[in-house]
Design brief:
Strand order of the largest sheet: 2-8-7-6-5-3-4
EC number: 3.7.1.3
CATH architecture of the largest domain: 3-Layer(aba) Sandwich
CATH superfamily of the largest domain: Type I PLP-dependent aspartate aminotransferase-like (Major domain)
Radius of gyration: 22 Å
CATH topology of the largest domain: Aspartate Aminotransferase, domain 2
Distance between the termini: 34 Å
Bound molecules: pyridoxal-5'-phosphate, (2S)-2-amino-4-(2-amino-3-hydroxyphenyl)-4-oxobutanoic acid
Function: Catalyzes the cleavage of L-kynurenine (L-Kyn) and L-3-hydroxykynurenine (L-3OHKyn) into anthranilic acid (AA) and 3-hydroxyanthranilic acid (3-OHAA), respectively.
Shape: globular
Pfam family, one: KYNU_C
CATH class of the largest domain: Alpha Beta
Number of strands: 13
Strand content: 5-15%
Largest sheet: 7 strands, mixed
Structural class: alpha/beta
Protein name: Kynureninase
Pathway: Cofactor biosynthesis; NAD(+) biosynthesis; quinolinate from L-kynurenine: step 2/3; Amino-acid degradation; L-kynurenine degradation; L-alanine and anthranilate from L-kynurenine: step 1/1
Length: about 400
């Protein structure tokens, strides 16, 4: 249904099966939060768990909590919950480290099995390219920077051996056709590491069905695991057994508590663990993931697209160029609009309680996380956006002067 008025948006809210999920979140009064694609807000249960883990488990049960509170299993427990969201076997995902570190581990291990060129797309989230640059230096491997508008045929024709690619692009929110990319990689004898940072928890992924064997992703965006929440690694069991990752820390050992003299990799994806897990953070992520229990991810993806469509439709009046897939097209959870003074506009919106973000040089990015945003919220945010743009209230010294890094 096309939303032409706030009444239409309210009608959609009233019929929205995902609307009750909003109750899991305690968002500040007067704020419309359009930045859950960068840092998800805390679910109430996650804050409760943080308190419980700190005060009861750490504070009272002390070191016994590694066993009694299940701390030692958290990388696997959280991994299994993420696996169900991304269409993977529950044993094939582990939570550990950051996305950057996980890319290093996975790309290094894959490069050993598939010697050749490392590749990434020109406009990819910077850390993906930075890590491959570091690995290329370390191993004297060729590095290919692909045109981000090129498709899989072009990518592998150029000789890519290990490619990293986002499933949802951090600027445009374009969704990659994972199966098509995997098919071409298969023909070329190459492998792909999927960066699911902007995809997990907002689109309906089915990694197994699409033939994806390796992926990494963030815990702090749509999964709402909190600032600096640990990331995850997916490696399909059969493929994982062939991999030796270089950060062979004791937590990835087959029998960590044997304290053996030599390293032996753990089963499957477990070998991607390295050191002691950050339990406070991981407990928060574990509780936050429960908000997704029994949610139909295709409904989440459809709502994210519908919310983005409302915003794009309203923005059409302002004659701004969008770099995101258009109305009705498949898209991840955000839309990005171009405007030379976008930084100031985003600051003016934040001052009015509508929190989006800005990506240099000129992109205003607005995220529509379906678990806690309603159709009316997006309608109201579009109202504020229209007012800021048409009144040019962004053109004020307090907004124009660059102060914030985020
Ligand atoms: C696509 C993508 N990859 C990686 C990252 C960074 O991950 P980390 O800071 O966990 O290394 C982000 C966001 O920060 C991202 O958007
Ligand atoms: N990870 C971040 C951080 O530590 C500070 C500020 C922002 C972030 C982000 O997540 C940026 C985000 N990945 C992006 O898509 O721009």
């Amino acid at each position: 249904m096309t939303v032409h008025s706030r009444k239409d948006a309210e009608a959609l809210d009233a019929a929205d099966p995902l609307a009750p999920l909003r109750e899991h979140f305690d968002l500040p009064e007067g704020v419309i939060y359009l930045d859950g694609n960068s840092l998800g807000p805390p679910p109430r249960s996650a804050l409760k768990r943080l308190h419980e883990t700190a005060h009861n488990h750490w504070g009272k049960d002390l070191i016994k909590s590694w066993n009694t509170a299940g701390w030692i299993d958290l990388p696997k427990t959280c991994g299994a919950k993420i696996a169900t969201l991304v269409g993977a076997d529950p044993n094939d995902v582990i939570v550990c480290d950051s996305v950057s570190v996980n890319i290093f581990k996975l790309a290094s291990a894959l490069l050993k099995l598939h010697p050749g060129a490392l590749a990434y797309e020109q406009d990819e989230f910077p850390t993906d390219g930075y890590i491959l640059q570091g690995l290329a230096n370390l191993t004297n491997s060729p590095l290919i920077k692909l045109n981000h508008q090129g498709g899989p045929v072009e990518a592998f024709a150029g000789g890519a051996s290990v490619l990293i690619k986002s499933a949802v692009h951090y600027k445009t929110a374009a969704i990659a056709d994972i199966a098509a990319w995997e098919a071409e990689a298969g023909k070329a004898g190459a492998v792909i590491i999927w960066d699911l940072s902007h995809a997990a928890g907002v689109i309906n992924l089915d990694l197994e069905a699409a033939g994806a064997r390796f992926a990494v992703g963030c815990g702090y965006k749509y999964l709402n695991g909190g600032p600096g929440a640990p990331a995850f690694v997916y490696a399909q069991r059969k493929a994982a057994e062939k991999l030796n990752q270089p950060l062979s820390g004791w937590m990835g050992h087959a029998h960590a508590f044997d304290f053996a003299g030599d390293y032996a990799p753990g089963e499957g994806v477990k070998r991607f663990a390295c050191g002691t897990p950050p339990i406070l953070s991981m407990s928060v992520l574990d509780a936050a993931l429960d908000v997704f229990a029994d949610i139909d991810m295709s409904a989440v993806e459809a709502k994210a697209k519908a919310l983005g469509d409302i915003f794009l439709l309203r923005a059409q009046k302002l004659s701004l160029e969008s770099v995101s897939p258009g109305i009705g097209e498949s898209r991840g959870g955000h839309v990005s609009l171009k405007f030379k003074d976008g930084y100031a506009v985003v600051q003016a919106l934040i001052a009015r309680g509508v929190i989006g973000d800005f990506r240099t040089p000129d992109l205003m990015r607005f995220g529509f996380a379906p678990l806690y945003l309603g159709y009316s919220d997006v309608w109201d945010a579009a109202d504020a956006f229209e007012q800021v743009m048409t009144s040019e209230s962004w053109n004020a010294p307090e907004f124009i002067t660059r102060k914030a890094v985020i």
